[in-house]
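Subject: for your reference before the review

Hello V.,

The reviewers asked for a structural picture of the protein, and I figured it would be easier to keep everything in one thread rather than splitting it across files. Below is the amino acid sequence we used in the manuscript, unchanged from the supplementary table.
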Amino acid sequence: LLLLLLLLLLLLEHKNIALPRKETNNMAITLNYAYLSSQLDGNPKEMKTIKLPNRQIASIEDLSSCQELTRLDLSKNSLPCTEGIEECTSITFLNIAENKIKTLERLATLKRLVTLNAAKNELSEYHPDSKNLKALILNGNQLRDIPSLKLCTELKTLILSSNRIEKIYQSRLKWASKTLLKLSLSHNLIRKIPDLSTLFFLKELRLNSNKIESIPETLALNRHLRVLDLGNNRISDMENLNVIGKLENLKSFNIRGNPLCQSEAYPQVPRERYPHLSFPDSAVAVAASTTGGEQPPQSLAEKNVKKKVMAKRMNKEKQKEEKNKKKPESSSTISTSGKSKEDGEDAAIVDGHNSSKMKKRARKEEKDRKLRDNRNEDSHNKKKKKKTKKKK
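And here is what came back from the structure prediction:
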């Protein structure tokens, strides 16, 4: 076994294959040229993509030699800052999620950056200044305000969920009004949806798990919306759903976990108004923490709609009962004296079933008889042929 291992090591050295080394749990690693050459297969100077996630990297010493690098993944490490990355000015994709980074000021030199993922760090503020930036992912941080997008005129995706944002400032989003397609602010402290009509091309808006109490009428101006998530908020009035009917391109809408899901008119009323959308049952109700355990009061509009729904139900049930009564009367052809009308109808139905069974049996018997006749004819013809052959 030892000889085999030695032979394998010699072969690997001869072919210049670098195997990734397993580091000890308590060992902090410094990322430099020597570490890259020992961990990766090939010359780091010529590499365009480097992926080193979950390697316990605690600092970056020097990456100036990696001038061809365009994609860098250092997620799930222990980096406290981005010092050392600013020298790789050709980077277009950077993933530094799940580290311990508190500031991103040094990334100002990355003018070609297109996608930045800095989720689940310790950021309290950040103001990107890359004109080519198209996707900014900052969920799971400690942000209290939306970053200023003054220089991000090409931004399409902005994810700021699971932060401490209390208010949406329009002035910070207007710079990306012509390009922004996706905005995620779920799991924050937002109480009000502002006028987002400047984001005319917005297709996806996620505001799940906030403190929103109403849906503004101005949201109807976002005509390109396809996905709207308002689940687990504090919306209690059914009239807020009138705005949704004006969004013609809306395909996915989530309202579950709100107080209006506990009203008696839910989910029948929204299902009838907007049949192209799916509404969960009231069993998926809002948590007691958001409503305080009290059922929201119903408005006059809700009560009128509820009455209409109940009247339609009653009419449908009456029509069904009339149809069920007419069916047995038309099928009953036999009535006997001394029995009630219902008994006669039941007997007629039973006789009808029996007659259908008799017909099926008769058909089977006819088929069997024909098969037997055909077999007898075949056997008779064969016997004739044999006799003629014998005579010849």
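For the response letter, the relevant points are probably these. The longest strand covers residues 57-60. The CA atoms of residues 34 and 44 lie 9 Å apart.

Happy to draft the paragraph if you're swamped.

O.
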